[in-house]
Amino acid sequence: MEAWQARLLEDERSGVLGTIARSGLPQLVPVCYALVEGDIAIAIDEKPKQGGRLARIRNIERDPRATLLVDHYEERWERLAWLRLEGEASVLDGGGEWPAALEALRRRYPRYRAMALEGLPLIRLRPTRVVGWRWQDGRASEQQT
To answer: What does the pLDDT read at residue 2?
Structure first.
C-alpha cells in the first residue's frame, strides 16, 4: 500500500463495505473500520439492529468476497481521492478473538470504549487487491498483494 493510501485510510472516518447478497447483487453498508497489520477490522457495535444476524455477516459467511471503499471529497477537486480494498472477509464470532483490532477500533472511535465488543462479531477483511486514485496523480494506481 502506498503512503498516501495508508494516510487516506487513517484520515477518513468511515467507509462503505460491499458484500455479495444471496441474489448476487452487491450489498453496501457504511461502516467504521481500523487498519490493523494490513487487514481491516470492522466492528458490529451495540447500536440497535433489526432482526437477527446482520445481512453483511450472512453474506460473508456464504461468500467471503468483500470490498471496502473509502473516499475523500471536497469542493476543491485537486484534493479528491478514493481507495478500494478488495479481498476475502471472515467473521470472528467474538471481538475478543482479535484483541489488537479492538484496541485499534477503540483508539479510533471513542464511543467503542464503552461498548462490550468482545462478545460481538467482528469482520476481518484481508485485502488482496488495492486500487486507488487521487487527483494529484491524475491516474489510478493498483496494487495486488
So the answer is: 87
**Cα–Cα distance for residue pair 139/34, rounded to 1 Å:** 26
Whole-structure pTM value: 0.89
- Sign of the CA dihedral running 3, 133, 125, 13: positive
Report the alpha-carbon distance of residue 30 to residue 108 in Å, rounded. 16
Size of the chain, expressed as the number of residues it contains: 145
Predicted pLDDT at 135 = 78
> In this predicted model, what pLDDT tens digit does every residue of 123-132 receive, in sequence order?
999 999 999 9
Bridge partners (DSSP) of residue 13 are: none
Q: Cell triple for residue 59?
A: 453474506
* Cell numbers describing residue 96: 475478543
SS3 at position 106: helix
Classify 40 as helix, strand or coil.
Answer: strand
The pLDDT score that the predictor gives to residue 82 is: 93
Q: What is the pLDDT of residue 18?
A: 98
Q: What share of the chain is helix, strand, coil (3-state, %, to 5)?
A: 30, 40, 30
Q: Which three cell numbers mark 102?
A: 479492538
Angle at 78 (CA atoms; ends 75, 84), nearest 5 degrees:
90
